[in-house]
Design goal:
This protein is about 15% helix and about 30% strand. With about 220 residues, it is an alpha+beta fold.
Length: about 220
């Protein structure tokens, strides 16, 4: 049976930065691939490890200006306008799909930092990711976080050579915003419906798809 999906597209940013410059000092990124040893924060010990089957539901939060321009935990530079996130145990970088279960918005995000360290929270989003997922206003939301294996393996291979993307450019979202389309997937393939001209039109089609039985449908932004 086909499952309809509608999500937002790729990039990344996260939680506890390295000690990086303050003020207006520009830092030089040195992205690396990092799993890391166990560590303890606020009395809780975390065990980073590779887990391509990771698929969890919990609360998402977000962070922004206070960390702008500082190092992430794997040596990238935090950009609050990039689509990134922090996670306590996933390798850095890892590419995940985050679905806001309250509005069915989905986004593919680059995990490049550690956090959040608050009970019940499973991911800390950059401000831009929070905006696109509808988390910025309320501050938190119930989400599903799922590792995308192939994308994560590719991102890890690039990071092992000190690269963030294939063209070595920061993974940021265009200021004009993404173009919505629909994605229908089965266990073997994906089918896209669109693009459409507006988010309003996307939501109208989403309603039709859900009414037609594709109850996992969601809006994807490229």
């Amino acid at each position: 049976m086909l499952l309809a999906a509608v999500g937002f597209a790729l990039s990344g940013c996260g939680g506890i930065p390295f000690i990086g410059g303050g003020g207006h000092q520009a830092l030089t990124p040195h992205p690396t691939y990092k799993v890391g040893a166990p560590y303890t924060v606020k009395g809780v010990t975390y065990y980073p490890h590779v887990d391509y089957a990771y698929d969890e539901t919990g609360m998402a939060s977000w962070y922004g200006q206070a960390f702008q321009g500082q190092y992430t935990a794997n040596g990238e530079i935090f950009d609050l306008n990039a689509l990134t996130a922090a996670h306590t145990t996933l390798p850095l970088p890892t590419i995940v799909e985050v679905v806001n279960l309250q509005n069915n918005r989905a986004l593919r995000i680059r995990v490049n930092d550690r956090g959040p360290f608050v009970k019940g929270r499973i991911i800390d989003l950059s401000r831009r990711a929070a905006q696109l997922l509808g988390v910025e206003g309320p501050g938190t939301a119930q989400v599903r976080v799922r590792v995308l294996k192939d994308e994560s393996i590719h991102a890890a291979a690039l990071a092992q050579h000190g690269r963030i993307s294939d063209d070595d450019q920061p993974l940021t979202q265009m200021a004009a915003g993404p173009e919505p389309h629909f994605l229908v997937e089965s266990t073997q393939h994906h089918v896209e419906i669109g693009p459409v001209e507006s988010e309003e039109e996307a939501r109208r089609l989403l309603t039709q798809m859900i009414d037609s039985g594709y109850r996992d449908a969601r809006i994807v932004f490229d």
